[in-house]
Every structure is written in structure tokens, then in C-alpha cells.
Amino acid sequence: MYSIKEIYFTLQGEGYHTGRPAVFCRFSGCNLWTGLEKDRSTAICQFCDTDFWGIDGENGGKYHSKSLANLIENQWQGDSEPFVVFTGGEPLLQLDKELIDEVHRKGFQIAVETNGTILPPDNIDWICVSPKANSKLVLEFGNELKLVYPQKNFDPSKFESFQFDHFFLQPMDGMEVEKSTLECVNYCIKNPKWKLSLQTHKLMGIK
Fold first, then answer.
1. How many Å apart are CA 27 and CA 47, to the nearest integer?
2. Nearest partner of 53 among 117, 6, 116, judged by Cα
3. Could you tell me which residues are beta bridge partners of residue 179?
4. Residue 69 lies in domain
5. pTM for the whole thing?
6. DSSP secondary-structure letter at 16?
7. What is the Cα–Cα distance from 115 to 135, expressed in whole angstroms?
């Protein structure tokens, strides 16, 4: 069974598919932080702004592959190609061939947003990797590399030889988000391989 924090229909807020309608399926759990505030200071990734602990969110619960695929299908709205984003936490702790096949049978294009510390199963349509400092990155290929910036001692240039179609810098959220945004803008201007990604869902006040 899969442990799911929440499932909901929205617009993708960041990266290459910004503005695209999508069902978000957020898995519970991560290998870089427990999700509990008491553990944040000792976590590998200390800047995460996502609630992925537990199964108490919208449509959260424990599901088998067929029931989860049905629920994802039921969330879809509109006439465009159905699109689901598997995210977390860390979705590759749970996402497997069985679920991928079930969701593909529903006609969905499948995207995953991962920290890149786990190799993915086959047949994912869009792979977005968001590397985190102090973790071991093993997934060096995909469609989109989206780096939260700046991270201490984490130079974007180290990723430029990796096999991705698109390279994005996304400002570190928090008290210094304006400073981080300016740093991202300046870096992208000087290094045109990189494009700017903003968390537009936060700017618009949507989920």
C-alpha cells in the first residue's frame, strides 16, 4: 500500500510546466528529513517548506495501486491531456512500476519531482530533479534539473555536465527570499544555461 499525504487538482506552480493543470499526488515520507519540526535542525535538508508527514491531508490515506489510480483520475478536470505530478517528501521511496502502469492506463502523463538520491523506475514521462546539499545525488539524468539557490557550498556549475534538457534556478524561500531571487536573476543573466523558476503558486495564493 502507498502512504499518501494529499491529492488535489491545481496548476503546476514552478519549473518547466508552470501554469499547466495537474493532479498533485504527494507521498508521505522523505529520506532527507522526517517532516517533524523537532528534527529539522539535524536533517540533511533543513529548508523544506512542504508538509509531507502523515496521511491526514486532502484525500490522504493508504491505497492500493488501483484505488489510488482511480482517485487520481477522479481529481482530473478539463479537456487537456491528463497530467499527474508525483511529489513528496520523496516520491521514489514508494512510486513503483505497478502504480505507474495503473496511472498510464488512465491516460495520464506522469511526472515526478525527486531529490535525486534514488534511481526511478522505468516509464516515467517527466523527471524533475531538485538536488539538496549534503545528500548523495545518483540521478544525473532527466528532463529538468531545478536547483533551489543559494545553498551553502553548492555551486550550480557542478551540475551542468549532467544529462538534463532544462536547468532552472529557484530562489530559496524564507526570510531572505528577495535576496535569493536577486542572486538567482544575476546568476541566470551571467550563465544563460540556467533559467529562472519562481513559485508562482505562492505568488497567486493557490495550492
1. 18
2. 6
3. none
4. 2-145
5. 0.96
6. T
7. 9
For 31, the 3-state DSSP assignment is coil
Grid cell at residue 145: 534539473
Strand-pair category, 61-63 with 2-11: antiparallel
**CATH number of the CATH domain containing 16:** 3.20.20.70
Residues 6+ apart with CB under 8 A from 141: 127, 162, 163, 164
3-state DSSP assignment of residue 188: helix
132 in any annotated domain: yes
Please report where in the chains the cell 491505497 appears, as a residue.
63
Does the residue 83 lie in any domain? yes
Nearest to 120 by CA among 134, 101, 138, 107: 138
Number of domains the chain is built from: 1
In a domain, 176, yes or no: no
**Which of 55, 58, 49, 57 shows the shortest CA–CA distance to 1?**
55
Q: Where are the alpha helices (DSSP H) in 2-160?
A: 65-75, 97-105
Note the pLDDT tens digit of each residue in 129-182: 999 999 999 999 999 999 999 999 899 999 999 999 999 999 999 889 999 999
In a domain, 86, yes or no: yes
Instruction: Supply the residues annotated as catalytic.
Output: 24, 30, 45, 48-50, 113, 201
Q: How far apart are CA 171 and CA 168, in angstroms?
A: 10
Take residue 144 and report the three cell numbers written for it.
Answer: 529538468
